[in-house]
Amino acid sequence: MLLDCAIIGGGPAGLNAALVLGRARRTVMLFDDNKPRNAVTQQSHGFITRDGIRPKEFRAMAHEDIRQYPSVEIKPSKIVGVKTERGVFTLVAAAGDVHHARTLLIATGLKEKLPAIKGLKECYGRSLFSCPYCDGWELRDKPLAVLNESSNADHTAKLVHNWSRDVIVCTNGANRLAPEQIRSLEMKGIRLYDGKIDRIVSNKGMLKEIVFADGTSVTRQGGFISPTWTHAANFSEVLGCKLNINGGIATDGFGRTSVKGVYAAGDTSIIAPSQLIVAAGEGSKAAIGINTDLTFDF
């Protein structure tokens, strides 16, 4: 069977694209190996009518919506290979089965690497988060820490300052802030701790204390970290898609990449801001682009 579209990735972008394409009566197969980046997330925020929803619940509700459209199949499988020949995309799954499609939507999202700090993983998703817009409200007015080793640590700290006036910046020994950036933090009462972090102390994932290598420590109740983001899959590289200035797959307003028939949506294409509602919207726009092109250009 030659599918109208194969979607790799079962996050909000891929799911919403499958929904829109199903409603357009397109034959679609969505491949999802169920290894989401937000597996540690307790609740997702910022999505109107779904604020505070658990990611697993959101996924289950999305699957239920998509089941109404018989031309769409969700396949719990990992794609390990993709190639194109004569305008047809061939996808190879981990189990060895092969599928063919006229168009391909890459919605594999990102994977993150956390700083190598003892005790950090226990807190991630419980009291330490990556997005102030997603979790700042829950941490409002608490003593917070911004763990950021990059030169934009001041930017993140100033954002967090909207939710709490008790904010510190920890650079873990890699202070890349210019003197004027440090002064701008001081003007807001944001303290800088540039020592190497020895460990993070917590109780059942709730941050209690940050201990530095020199033996000093500071008490905190939550905060935000800046992981290193990389693409969860290399399909765009294999297919030759151009990247944008942020390192995401370059697309137009409707998910089209530089390679004909290849589309991208969600974190894969935009990288930031990494939010549920933004990714879902990107998936919807990509689906409209795909359906339009299938109608007029293929």
What does this structure look like?
This protein has 298 residues and is an alpha/beta fold. It folds into 2 domains: 2-112 and 228-296, FAD/NAD(P)-binding domain, CATH 3.50.50; 115-225, FAD/NAD(P)-binding domain. Helix content is 27%, strand content 28%. It has 9 helices and 17 strands. Helix 1 (12-23) packs parallel to helix 2 and helix 1 packs parallel to helix 9.
In short:
The protein is of the alpha/beta class. The chain contains nine helices and 17 strands.
Oligomer: single chain
Strand content: 25-35%
For the record, the CATH architecture of the largest domain stands as: 3-Layer(bba) Sandwich
Helix content: 25-40%
Write the CATH fold name of the largest domain: FAD/NAD(P)-binding domain
CATH superfamily of the largest domain: FAD/NAD(P)-binding domain
Q: Helix and strand string, N-terminal first?
A: EHEHEEEEEHEHEHEHEEEEEEHEHH
Helix-strand category: alpha/beta
Q: Give a quick account of the main beta sheet: strands, pairing sense, barrel closure.
A: 7 strands, mixed
How many domains?
2
N/C terminus separation: 17 Å
Q: How many beta-strand segments?
A: 17
The CATH class of the largest domain is Alpha Beta
Please tally the helical runs, counting DSSP H or I stretches of 4 or more residues.
Answer: 9
Cα shape:
elongated
